[in-house]
Amino acid sequence: MTNRPFRWSLVGASDIARAFVGPAISAQPDAAVVSVVSGDLARAQDVAAPFGARGHDELTVALSDPDVDAVYISSINSAHHDQALAAIAAGKHVLCEKPLALTVAEAQELVDAAEKAGVVFATNHHMRNSVPHRLIRDAIAAGDIGEPVAVNVRNAIRLPPAARRWRTTDSAAGAGVALDLTVHDADCLRFVLNADPLTVVAHTSSGHMTRVGIDETISGSAEFVSGVHASFVESFVTGHAPTCLEVFGTEGALIGTGIQSMSPVGTLTHVGPAGSRKIDLGTREDLYVVGVRRFIEAVRGEAEPPASGQDGVWSLAFARAALEAARTGHRQTVGQAR
């Protein structure tokens, strides 16, 4: 495999496949997109054209192609599980968008199936590839802010019209902000704190952009095994303030502004007894270029993927617990299938 390009099929002719992951694959010196799959053949061919790839309207065609080493899945949320399971059964490595499935049990089934098949199965939690997020994690581990006590994360955006479609109208497809943004923030919290969540309480609202009953804004708090408390807000209907990730410790704080993003943007500030200082973030790579490179390295046994399948199970478990807490009005345990 190392003597030829690492070849991908993009399953789902999505905007993220077209604008982020496909170009990230092409940016690798030893990788290429060879096919794109969509239920809409014309759309598959349109997304495939810039990569010199083939367009298909049947997943089985791509999965039976010996030229395909791995698939990137970015179809509607409800399709992730079955498509990933089929890819794993075909012996393909899988990089899957969040959420891995609509239920925690189905997500765990994918992790177990990949382990049994001996293929790499990873979650596309792209913010693990972000310089400020890695610096926050390292600073906490080094004790730079003393003992972490609380975290605040805000990922409140204005969902672009082109991205709304099923995300705002179709519960069966996996609509709502929790399965779109809360999963990412949950993974960020686990990543920077290097700790798992225990319980979560939350509230949701709907009706401004989404169909009534489909969460467009969610806010809540969670307790982690380390004793840290985290507050979170995600929304489809705001976007008038920068995103943030703020960690407060006994000896200082780390303030990330504008960093909850698909792009390498934003600033990071350390605040302590001596005052505040902006941290030099150096040269930052495209988050998806980093993620694809590390995925390929994982397949070759040279590294671990940025976010494993099990990390994707955890982020889905957090989002599902938050939605259940909002539905019942009671704090929920963040449970996994295993």
TrEMBL record:
GO MF: nucleotide binding
Positions of the GFO/IDH/MocA-like oxidoreductase domain: 134-254
Residue stretches making up the Gfo/Idh/MocA-like oxidoreductase N-terminal domain: 6-125
SUPFAM superfamilies from the UniProt entry: Glyceraldehyde-3-phosphate dehydrogenase-like, C-terminal domain, NAD(P)-binding Rossmann-fold domains
InterPro entries recorded: Gfo/Idh/MocA-like_OxRdtase_N, Gfo/Idh/MocA_Oxidoreductases, GFO_IDH_MocA-like_dom, NAD(P)-bd_dom_sf
A Pfam family: GFO_IDH_MocA
Highest rank taxon of the organism: Bacteria
Matches recorded under PANTHER family: BILIVERDIN REDUCTASE A
Protein name: 1,5-anhydro-D-fructose reductase (1,5-anhydro-D-mannitol-forming)
